[in-house]
Design goal:
Blueprint lengths: L5 H41 L9 H50 L14 H29 L4 H15 L2 H45 L3 H48 L1
Helix pairs in contact: 1-2, 1-4, 1-5, 2-3, 2-5, 3-4, 3-5
Length: 266
Amino acid sequence: MNLYNLDSKMTDKSYEILNNYLEEQKQQNMLRVNEIRNNCRDILERHGIFEDKKNGIIYQAMEKELINLEHNIDYFSEYNFEELTKNKIDSGIENISAKIDSLEHNIEFVYSDDDYRYNKAESENSLKNMLFTYFESYKANTINLLIKSGYSQNMLDDIEEDILEYVTSKATDILTEKLSQDRIKNYFSLNKELNDLSVNIINEAEARFKCDLNGTPFDELKEKRDSIRQKAQKLEDIRMQIASLDIKTNEINGMVQKLNNERILL
């Protein structure tokens, strides 16, 4: 029995799933970095340093560092998710081959899972280092530009103290935890979806094998199954609509009965 390009299907659909998760993760990273942006701007604005003609360069420098931070977090996420996906593809193709071999030789099939694991501690440490690097650059660049702009030493000291206070505050720890939890949630969702894909393709391999034995074209059989599934879904939708109407009818009847009872009392 041939693979029917199931290995290519495993690869193409895995990367399609991966791309969806990468895009979702980027959107989450953008939101988290925006939290940092708002806090950093707030520190400057509290000291009367607004984004105007005089101080525009300070905000531009901050924005450049934020873009680098977001890029580094995105790259870190992408690396982890891609490693997982590559591993799942290799594992999936091996399972497909093992399934076909078991069908052809009538031997037991044993599903083999990969051993790629998510290291939460290492991930959090990497995120902390990225945030620390950003704040160090943000602080150094901001103070340097403020000195060049002629601000007083007292203001420089106050701003530097505010930056250090924010970096060492619980808020930064919470932000790191948010970034970590976003990644863990998406990582395990990606892992599950890739596992489900692998199982579905293994089931397809078995279905194709049985169709070959029976002389039935698999694609024709698939069309029949899809048609039945669609009809079943329509019936379920109708059933739900009827149930909803029954609930509304009961509510109306209850209201009418209540009004009738009130009239009788009057």
